[in-house]
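@channel sequence for tomorrow's demo:
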Amino acid sequence: MSHEFDLAAIRQALRHPLPGQVAQMRMSTRPRFGLEARPPGHQPRQGGVLILLYPKDGRLHFPLTRRTEKVEEHKGQISLPGGAREGDEPLAWTALRETCEELGVDPQSVEVLGALTPLYIFPSDYCITPYVAARPDRPTFVPDPVEVAEVLEVPLATLLDPTIRREEAWVLHGIATRVPFYQIGEHKVWGATAMVLSEFAAVLGDR
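structure tokens (generated this afternoon):
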């Protein structure tokens, strides 16, 4: 099955009520660690991540990054570009700034289309807000060698391909865990990144 996407339609869909946690949880580990350990009133650190849409070979794509072994958290995992908020900057700017720092994408070349549902990540104690943005042409990626080991350019239609959604039994934190993931090439995209992408897939019509 082929899928074609119109940026105006995506922008409009992001203005509607979001699928939210229901869609996120489709790709959550079971059990999902840490939610019960979050004390009432706790204020996690804030961060922003970006789903950056751009044309390549006639289809919309978005980048994922494989993190290096030099970063403090989530070493070697597949992630969306993004990171920690600095000061009281708007979280949309956090996502754009971090994408610039990680991949060399000029924020002025990008249009923010909308936001997805914030997601709390227990291991790093972050609440991330995902943003969807677009630019009219493919960026020339300049990966930061400290943070980015590899850039994966993923066709947007891939998210709606049911064959890439898999699940395995892993042992995490010493506990037997069911882990859903997206199999993208040789990489397993799981955890918070998969949960964000699951909600975006629902926005695109994969409900």
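heads up for whoever presents: The helical segments are 7-15, 21-24, 91-103, 191-203.
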